[in-house]
Automatic annotation (TrEMBL), chain A:
One Pfam family named in its UniProt record: BPD_transp_1
Domain (ABC transmembrane type-1): residue spans on this chain: 62-250
Record family assignment: Belongs to the binding-protein-dependent transport system permease family.
The keyword Transmembrane helix is assigned to this record: yes
UniProt organism field: Psychrobacillus soli
Main location per the UniProt record: membrane
Name assigned to this protein: ABC transporter permease
Residue intervals passing through the bilayer: 57-85, 97-121, 127-146, 174-196, 231-250
GO BP of this protein: transmembrane transport
Topology relative to the membrane: Multi-pass membrane protein
Keyword Glycosyltransferase attached: no
UniProtKB/TrEMBL annotation, chain B:
Lineage: Bacteria, Bacillati, Bacillota, Bacilli, Bacillales
Pfam families assigned to the protein according to its UniProt record, in alphabetical order: ABC_tran, TOBE_2
Keyword Signal: no
Protein name as annotated: Carnitine transport ATP-binding protein OpuCA
Domain ABC transporter: 4-234
UniProt cross-references to PANTHER family, sorted A to Z: SPERMIDINE/PUTRESCINE IMPORT ATP-BINDING PROTEIN POTA, SPERMIDINE_PUTRESCINE IMPORT ATP-BINDING PROTEIN POTA
EC number: 7.6.2.9
Protein's UniProt keywords contain ATP-binding: yes
């Protein structure tokens, strides 16, 4: 018995090491004082954190990323909430197909989706870079919005909607007055998850960005191609912290188990 | 004076008729139950009255106005749901005040009316709580208060007690009846629980396959079911299909093969168009037969086939020349399997049904 649990403990430790080790190494190397990214660091310094704010493109692309994620998020919500509502509330022919279409951006490799978007939408309609980013990111976020909100509607008691109607609200009024307030936490979680997904996206963004306009992850990629200093580690740590704060908030709101069911 | 009328209503789901040529008239101030097995169309009828669904054909007249196309939110009917359907994000006070706020009632007036209605349903002091902090019975009382406070023209209940446990069900139904009578509010009540409907209703409509089989006061239905379905539904377990039915000297003579039965015809109540006799297991008389016993009038010889213990009494299935009969009898010494018995059909307990 003792032997067995010791083996399990070792196994668990190894799994966690495998998962978290790289993050740990990045975090440590971000404090390197020298000019080259290496592990273990030789001297301790914050200079590469300062460098993040000296490279102008980081700030510009950060703004682009935030803007694209927020705007795309808004559109994804406007499309996703009604879609999730219809999929949960009604039974209709083709429901499963629609469900599949809404999750397909998760299933299809991002590279394929990105290329297809570029080739058949962006080029065909001559969209600007901002417009393309906006469309691409809406598509990235939509499945997460639909899934998370669907799952908060899956055990929803729709009779409260009828109750509201019998008390004098129209169908639309009942949706805003009693359905929305009761899926508020689901919507917030959807916003956060979708935001992270969009903010960190590389594979679709790489096709949508172009000269002069880029998102932060793409900019980071470009930076790594040209420089090998620890700035990239420092910025990664900052992004990890932001992500951790987001996930903590989501967990607080509704529990992460929300994303594993259905 | 009738408050509302359903005329020749037809409703179908997926091309299957749930209601067809359905008619119902309800008087002001009465509590009318729709009772029947699941799938009989009672909930459909209620939802149609509420306006949650539209009929394919027919008319709904309310106070002589055509309500057929009036949407739910313009009807001013109170609806109480089986699963309470309280708004989880609002306090009890706000749940109850919901309809009043939509009606632009002044703040002081809302406060007064909500408190008053919470008083009626015995929930004083609960107004700051949230629905999840309440028990099932309390939730249903909030739901009733919420429906009552808008002073509805009609109150509709959809199996309101079926999620509650047995004891609570009994006290809640008394409560519903008390409130309904106190406020004199016309009510339509849907349930599949016979006892519940019979105990609180002025009138009961027994429904089967989208048709009202009988609409009458509970006592009449209990004693004089008009159709075989109604009789079976309310516990008449024994049926005899007679060959002939004849009226003679104020009595009715029934023949089945070589056997003759006589039943009393009392007043207008008794339906004599039917040819099927029905009797409850509790009303059949059973006793052991000794060799010399002659066949008494309204009697049958039989043999005990199955004996089951019901707690208060024993139930026997008795095989006779004209079929099997179910009999309940309280007895110190139960009859044994295969025992020869005499069954007697009391004159005033058998009824004729269609």
């Amino acid at each position: 018995m003792q032997e067995k649990s010791r083996g399990l403990a070792l196994f668990t430790f190894l799994v966690f090491l495998f998962l978290l080790g790289p993050l740990l190494i990045i975090s440590i190397t971000s404090f390197e004082g020298g000019n080259i990214l290496k592990f273990p660091p030789e001297e301790f310094s914050f200079r590469w954190y300062e460098n993040i704010f000296k490279v102008k493109m980081f700030f510009i692309t950060f703004k682009t990323s935030i803007f694209v994620s927020l705007a795309g998020n808004l559109l994804a919500l406007l499309l996703g909430i009604p879609a999730a509502y219809a999929l949960s509330r009604y039974d209709f022919r083709g429901k499963n197909v629609l469900n599949l279409i809404f999750v397909s951006p998760i299933l299809i490799p991002g590279i394929v989706l990105g290329f297809a978007l570029l080739r058949y939408v962006v080029v065909a309609y001559e969209f600007s870079i901002y417009t393309s980013l906006f469309i691409g990111h809406t598509i990235i976020m939509l499945p997460f919005v639909v899934r998370v909100i669907s799952s908060s509607l899956s055990n929803f008691d729709f009779s409260i909607e009828e109750a509201a109607q019998s008390l004098g609200l129209s169908k639309v009024g009942a949706f805003f007055k009693v359905v929305l307030p009761n899926i508020k936490s689901g919507i917030i979680a959807a916003v956060m998850i979708a935001f992270l997904e969009s903010f960190n996206n590389v594979d679709i963004s790489v096709f949508m960005t172009g000269p002069g306009v880029s998102t932060l992850p793409i900019q980071m990629l470009t930076y790594v191609e040209n420089y090998f200093d620890p700035t990239i580690a420092a910025i990664s740590v900052l992004l990890m912290i932001i992500t951790a704060i987001f996930m903590f908030m989501v967990e607080r709101l509704m529990g992460l188990s929300y994303f594993t069911k259905r | 004076m009738s408050l509302f009328t359903l005329e020749n209503i037809a409703v179908s789901y997926n091309k299957q008729h749930v209601l067809k040529d359905f008619n119902l008239e309800i008087e002001k101030g009465k509590l009318v139950s729709l009772l029947g097995p699941s799938g009989c169309g009672k909930t459909t009828t209620l939802r149609l009255i509420a306006g949650f669904l539209q009929s394919d054909e027919g008319k709904f007249l309310f106070q002589e106005k055509d309500y057929t196309k009036v949407p739910v939110n313009k009807r001013n009917f109170g609806f109480v749901f089986q699963n309470y359907a309280l708004f989880p994000h609002l306090t009890i006070f706000d749940n109850v005040a919901f309809g009043l706020k939509l009606r632009k009632v002044g703040k002081a007036e809302i406060e007064k009316r909500v408190m008053n209605v919470l008083d009626i349903v015995n929930l004083q002091g609960f107004e700051k709580r949230y629905p999840k902090e309440l028990s099932g019975g309390q939730k249903q009382r909030v739901a009733i208060a919420r429906a009552l406070v808008i002073e509805p023209d009609l109150l509709l209940f959809d199996e309101p007690l079926s999620n509650l446990d047995a004891n609570l069900r009994e006290s809640m139904r008394v409560e519903i009846r008390r409130i309904q009578q106190e406020l004199g509010i016309t009510t339509v009540y849907v349930s599949h629980d016979q006892e519940e409907c019979f105990s609180i209703s002025d009138q009961v409509a027994i429904m089967n396959k989208g048709v009202i089989e009988q609409l009458s006061d509970p006592a009449t239905i209990y004693k004089y079911p008009s159709t075989k379905f109604v009789a079976d539904f309310i516990g008449f377990k024994n049926f005899i299909d007679f060959d002939t039915v004849a009226e003679r000297e104020g009595q009715i003579e029934l023949k089945k093969g070589d056997y003759t039965f006589v039943i009393q015809k009392d007043g207008e109540m008794k339906n004599i168009s039917g040819k099927t006799g029905a009797i409850r297991p509790d009303n059949l008389q059973i006793r052991a037969k000794s060799a010399a016993d002659p066949l008494p009038p309204n009697g049958l010889f039989g043999q005990v086939n199955v004996t089951t213990f019901l707690g208060r009494s024993y139930q026997y299935v008795v095989e006779t020349a004209i079929g099997n009969f179910v009999v309940n009898q309280e007895m110190a010494q139960p009859l044994s399997m295969g025992q020869e018995v005499i069954l007697e059909f009391p004159k005033d307990e058998m009824v004729l049904v269609d």
